[in-house]
C-alpha cells in the first residue's frame, strides 16, 4: 500500500482492503506502508509523512489487527533497501525494461523526467516480498507482471546459491471482488486519479459531501431499479455498493425497490454509506489524533519485521560472499 493519497476511495476499500484484512484470519499476514516506493512520485516531504500515517490509520480502522498481524512502514526496516540492491545485481537491464508499468509511466514522463528509482521499483517490490519468506501475495492485474519478476528472481537465487535460499511466492487471487465505478461516469472505475472528484467516495471526506455525491450520481432515463451493467451502469453501481456494505444480495434489493424511484435508492444508499463511514472515520481520527501511540504501534511492527527481514538478509549476504 503506497501512501500516495490523503484518503482511500470506496473502490480501494471494497475491491481490495476488505479482502486483504480478511486474509489475516487464516494466514500470518504482513502489511507494509511502502513509503520508499512513494518517493518515485517526488512527494512533498511533509505530505508524505502525513500520508504514511493516514494510510496506516485507515488500514487499522478497516480491521488490520496488530496483535495478530505485522503492520509497519517500509523505510523503518532498512533491510528492504539493502536487499533491493542485492536483487538489482541479479536483474537483467532488459528484463526490468520490459515491465509494462515502467514503459507506460516513463513514456509519459520522458527520459529526463524518469528516475532510476522508477526503473528499479519492481526490484524493491521483490525485496518487500522475498524478505519475509512470503508464500502468497494478493495482487491485482496491474501487479501481476511485477510478481512474475519476483518469482523469476527467487528461482534464479535458488539456482545460483542453492535450494532454499528464498521462498518462491505465489499470487493469491482474491475471490471475485466488487468493482466500483465512478458516480459521474459509471463506465470508468472509481479511481483517485479521476479528473473530477464528484464521482468519488473518499473515505475521509465530510459525510455530508459523500451523501451529496451519491444523491447526484449519474443514472439513466428509465425508472426501473434493475441490475444490468451494460444497459444501466449507474444504477448497477449503486446496487453493488449497497449490496457490499449491507451484505444483502442484489436480487433482494431489486425486489425491495420494485416500483420505487431512483431518488429513493440514492437517498437510502447515502444513509447506508454515511452510517458505515462515520464510525470508520471515528476510528481513523482516533489514531491520527494520537500520533505518539500510532508511531509506537508502527515502531513495534517495524521491530518485529526486522527480526524476520534481518534473518533473510543475513542468509543472502552470507551466500553472496558478503
Ligand atoms: P486508484 O485507482 O484509486 O489509484 P489503486 O490503483 O491504488 O487505486 O488500487 C489500489 C487497490 O484498490 C488495487 O488492488 C485495486 O484493484 C483496488 N481498486 C482500485 N479502484 C477500485 C475500484 N474502483 N473497484 C474495485 N477495486 C478497486
Ligand atoms: Na492508480
UniProtKB/TrEMBL annotation:
GO terms for biological process: tryptophanyl-tRNA aminoacylation. ATP binds at residues 2-4, 11-12, 140-142, 180, 189-193. Its EC number is 6.1.1.2. GO terms for molecular function: ATP binding; tryptophan-tRNA ligase activity. The keyword Transcription regulation does not apply. The keyword Signal does not apply. It is found in: Cytoplasm. It is an enzyme of class 6 (ligase). L-tryptophan binds at residue 128. Keywords: Aminoacyl-tRNA synthetase, ATP-binding, Cytoplasm, Ligase, Nucleotide-binding, Protein biosynthesis. GO terms for cellular component: cytosol. It comes from the Bacteria. It catalyses: tRNA(Trp) + L-tryptophan + ATP = L-tryptophyl-tRNA(Trp) + AMP + diphosphate + H(+). Homodimer. Belongs to the class-I aminoacyl-tRNA synthetase family. Catalyzes the attachment of tryptophan to tRNA(Trp). HAMAP family: Trp_tRNA_synth_B (MF_00140_B). PANTHER family: TRYPTOPHAN--TRNA LIGASE, MITOCHONDRIAL (PTHR43766:SF1). NCBIfam families: trpS (TIGR00233). This is Tryptophan--tRNA ligase. The gene is trpS.
Amino acid at each position: 500500500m503506497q501512501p500516495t493519497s490523503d484518503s482511500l476511495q470506496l473502490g480501494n476499500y471494497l475491491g481490495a482492503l476488505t479482502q486483504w484484512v480478511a486474509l489475516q484470519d487464516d494466514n500470518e499476514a504482513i502489511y507494509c506502508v511502502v513509503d520508499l516506493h512513494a518517493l518515485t512520485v517526488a512527494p512533498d516531504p511533509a505530505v508524505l509523512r502525513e500520508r504514511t500515517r493516514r494510510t496506516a490509520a485507515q488500514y487499522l480502522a478497516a480491521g488490520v489487527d496488530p496483535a495478530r498481524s505485522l503492520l509497519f512502514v517500509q523505510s523503518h526496516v532498512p533491510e528492504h533497501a539493502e536487499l533491493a540492491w542485492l536483487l538489482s545485481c541479479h536483474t537483467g537491464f532488459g528484463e526490468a525494461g520490459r515491465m509494462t508499468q515502467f514503459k507506460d509511466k516513463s513514456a509519459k514522463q520522458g527520459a529526463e523526467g524518469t528516475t532510476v528509482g522508477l526503473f528499479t521499483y519492481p526490484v524493491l517490490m521483490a525485496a518487500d516480498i522475498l524478505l519475509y519468506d512470503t508464500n502468497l501475495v494478493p495482487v491485482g492485474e496491474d501487479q501481476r507482471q511485477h510478481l512474475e519478476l519476483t518469482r523469476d528472481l527467487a528461482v534464479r537465487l535458488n539456482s545460483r546459491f542453492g535450494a532454499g535460499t528464498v521462498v518462491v511466492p505465489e499470487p493469491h487471487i482474491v475471490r471475485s471482488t466488487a468493482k466500483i465505478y465512478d458516480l459521474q461516469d459509471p463506465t470508468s472505475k472509481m479511481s483517485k486519479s479521476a479528473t473530477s472528484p464528484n464521482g468519488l467516495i473518499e473515505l475521509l471526506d465530510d459525510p455530508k459531501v459523500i451523501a451529496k455525491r451519491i444523491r447526484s450520481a449519474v443514472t439513466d432515463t428509465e425508472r426501473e431499479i434493475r441490475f444490468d451493467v451494460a444497459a444501466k451502469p449507474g444504477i448497477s453501481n449503486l446496487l453493488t455498493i449497497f449490496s457490499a456494505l449491507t451484505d444483502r444480495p442484489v436480487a433482494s434489493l431489486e425486489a425491495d425497490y420494485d416500483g420505487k424511484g431512483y431518488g429513493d435508492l440514492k437517498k437510502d444508499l447515502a444513509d447506508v454509506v454515511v452510517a458505515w463511514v462515520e464510525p470508520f472515520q471515528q476510528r481513523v481520527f482516533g489514531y491520527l489524533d494520537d500520533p505518539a501511540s500510532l508511531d509506537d504501534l508502527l515502531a513495534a511492527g517495524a521491530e518485529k519485521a526486522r527480526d524476520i527481514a534481518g534473518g533473510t538478509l543475513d542468509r543472502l549476504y552470507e551466500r553472496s560472499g558478503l
